[in-house]
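Protein fold
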Amino acid sequence: MNSIQISNVVINQTKSLYSLNDLHKASGGQKKHEPHQWFRNVQTQDLIAEIEAQGGQAVQTVNGGTRRGTYVCKELVIAYGMWINAAFALQVIRAFIAAQEQGSLKISPAQKQQIQAAVMARHHRTGEHWQEIYRKLHSFLHVNSYHEIDTRDFERAIQFLGSIPDTPAPVQALQFSEREITNFGTVVYYLDWATRQLHALSEPLKQLGAHKQGVAAWTLWHEAQNWLQASRESLERVAPQMQDSWYRRHLADNFERMNNLPYLN
């Protein structure tokens, strides 16, 4: 990471972000140019939103330590300089140009195209959003944009994009044997029969003075109807897929027995 110095003030850096507090000091430190005043601008907020929408990190706040303060990306550094005045903006631009000329070589246009292709390949392979892939790549290489990747880090970038991200294991569908399905059908039949008996007992219980128990018997029958009907529909849906004729016939017998139960309302 190359050192940036403006007006004899060293601009502290962290992960390709630059100290806005140091820039304010380099500009003269006037109160009207304090960073929080600049952040209030609608244009500043729009610029931050656009940088983040493209997968870049625009702003980071460091709390505590000797380098605490607000750090921003290179684009925002230049925007901040232009907000102050043209002379300071020119100092900022020239400082970055000098640092770039002294720094390591960046990836070529052809290598950038390979990065883009690898990002899209990972997107199609894993389903990750392409902006999220760029964000992870930038974080992995500690850069604000893939345009800033050093030539020496190109292979690492390609290997990273070719890696498979941590994803939850696919959930396997529940499977039941035909015997279990048939048993389920038998249980549904007996529950249907039992709740009908409760319905029949409801009024006699009330007449005997057990009003609470009579109401409970009717409620159990009534509330069970939707669940029993849904369970039967599920069984009828899977019945044609059953291969064993004995289990299929046994399940059909349960349906027939349910059909023969007395109708209640």
Remarks:
- The chain has a mean pLDDT of 87.
- The chain is about 60% helix and 5% strand.
- Residues 178-207 form the longest helix (30 residues).
- The longest strand covers residues 59-62.
